[in-house]
Hints:
- By secondary structure, the protein is an alpha/beta fold.
- The protein folds into two domains: 2-147 and 327-363, Quinone Oxidoreductase, Chain A, domain 1 (Alpha-Beta Complex); 167-302, NAD(P)-binding Rossmann-like Domain (Rossmann fold, 3-Layer(aba) Sandwich).
- It has helices spanning 39-45, 93-96, 154-174, 190-202, 214-222, 236-243, 258-266, 309-321, 340-345, and strands spanning 2-6, 14-17, 19-20, 27-36, 55-56, 60-68, 80-83, 118-120, 123-127, 137-141, 145-147, 182-186, 206-211, 227-230, 248-253, 268-276, 298-301, 331-335, 354-358.
- The strands form three sheets. Strands 4, 6, 7, 10, 11, 18 and 19 form a seven-stranded mixed β-sheet that branches. A six-stranded mixed β-sheet has the order 2-1-5-9-8-3, with no helix packed on it.
- Strand 18 (331-335), helix 9 and strand 19 form a beta-alpha-beta unit.
- Helix 3 crosses helix 8 (309-321).
- The longest helix has 21 residues, at 154-174.
- The protein is globular and about 60 Å long.
- The two termini are 19 Å apart.
- The mean pLDDT is 96.
- The structure holds adenosine-5-diphosphoribose (APR) and zinc ion (ZN) (2 copies).
Amino acid sequence: MKAAVLEAVGSPLVLAELAIDEPEPDEVLLRVAAAGVCHSDHNLYVGNLPGALPLVLGHEVSGVVERVGSNVGGLRVGDRVVTCPSGFCGRCRWCMSGHLHLCLDKNRTRLDGHQPRLTRDGEPVTPFVGLGGFAEQMLVHHSSVATVPAELPLDLAALLGCAVITGFGSVLNTARVRPGQTVAVIGCGGVGLNVVQAARYVGASRIIAVDRLSAKLARASAFGATDVVDAGATDPVQVVRELTGGGVDHAFEVVGRGTTIEQAFGMLGLRGTATVVGVARPDDRVTIPALALLSEKRLQGGQMGSSRFPLDVALLARLYLDGRIQLDALVSERIGLDDADTALRTMNDSTGARSVITFPGVLQ
Ligand code: APR
Ligand code: ZN
Ligand code: ZN
């Protein structure tokens, strides 16, 4: 099967023919329908985060089940599914306490000594976070897969697996924004737009979108932002504090940099909470004024929107089908697998929301 392979950081993805193994008892073979290009793929592409090369990127994926392993219950050939980087074991203390996204064994790799899932000329190729969606097929652990209703178009469904579940979950689960609270969102790309629309969904009274590109801000307004702040033209901390008479209840950082995390903390009012959604470089650092903590401010991390993947995917799919959240306007372009490299290379200057790779001939 064909896949876009990252052979070296800084070099373009290469289209290559890979061998994909048969499913082990707990695995599922998928025919990929669509894969979103997310900033977390970009982190590996430019070397901000390490990965075992060669690597197949792509983790925000939809597809159709082609084969199931002998232990897999609840999934059948032909099922339409979404994948997520947070597979889970169901047995560790985090799973048992309902924090599936923090599972200690996300089932991203096969056991030592087993045949690799992907190979090229006999050499192993790593599927990113156990998925590797920039490819015609994927072989994944069944806990990384959630079914979606047949009425949901698969190119939209793919976005549920990362951008939507992370954005909504950060608001609903991690920060638990309440109706009437004020919210600032720094970074209005694919994930940030979902923080914006989740804040609208829970009834935030003020949703201030911050970005350095005007096209991103215009889109944020369409997703529910009540105010927009151009971070390239003004000091966003000062403007947000002025707009809210002293700071917001919740600030979300959806860029992945120490400096913007500091800005999120600086935007808080009394008892405010800054939630970090973005994934920063391992060497990045955050400095906050110690005395600000006297105002009962909090800075907290988050991962995958603190989601329980199968439950939350089902909920989000329902909300879309009931017309209560937007997915269509998140897709700025549909591209072929051979354009994945261009989408990654131009991501930081892109005015779009999400580029989605689709596969001609696969059921959408
Ligand atoms: N201030 C404000 N906005 C910024 C800044 C800045 N200094 N730098 C970048 N941005 C904006 C970009 O203009 C863009 O709109 O942040 C947005 C990032 O969006 P995407 O590139 O689409 O990234 P996305 O996929 O949404 O991921 C955002 O969340 O899941 C994590 O790893 C992911 O860290 C990444 C973050
Ligand atoms: Zn677990
Ligand atoms: Zn992602």
